[in-house]
Each structure stands twice: as structure tokens, then as C-alpha cells.
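Write out the 3D structure for:
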Amino acid sequence: MEKIWSLHDNAKVPERYFVLNVFNAAEVIDYATAPMGEVKNPKIGNQLSLRTLNVKKFKVKNGAFSGRHLLRDAKTSEWFCDDVFREEIKNTTPGTYKFNAVATV
């Protein structure tokens, strides 16, 4: 998105912004090991959410991606990507995103 205007002062924002909208959903997270909690969302009520993105705290299910490179968890809406997607983003827009590693079960 190259032409973005600030809502604060209507000035053009000089930086380029990148947006990801992830539609593929699956049960990705191993909920037995994940620090889950409810977050109140005024539009849809309570929603499950991860409390932290620490690799020692939770794992993702092995085979959850099933050939997909990018998807979101069906219960929490957290998004996950595989190594192929991560490397493409790092090569295309270095330093734009921070990726956290997770283990598989």
C-alpha cells in the first residue's frame, strides 16, 4: 500500500505499508500446551487468544499446514506461516515483520 494518509493529520505517510489478510483457517495450535485466555471483543463477545508467543510455551500441530504456506488458527485467529513464506517475506521486505519460531507436536 503505497498511498496511505494519516488519520491523525491527513498527511501522506512516507513509508510503504504491507497488509496480510489470511483466509485459510485450521486448528493449528496444540491447545493442551498453549497459554490460552479469553479476550472480550465488543463486537463478537469473548474470543480465545494466545497469552504469549514464546516457543517454550506452546506447539503447533504437525501437518496442520497441509501444503499451505500461510493460515490462521480457527479458534484464536492467530496467523502462522511456514519456512517458505517466512523466507520470501524476509527476502522481499527485510526487517518488516518479526517472526517467532514454534515447535510442532
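Strands lie at 25-26, 36-41, 45-50, 59-60, 70-73, 79-81, 103-104.
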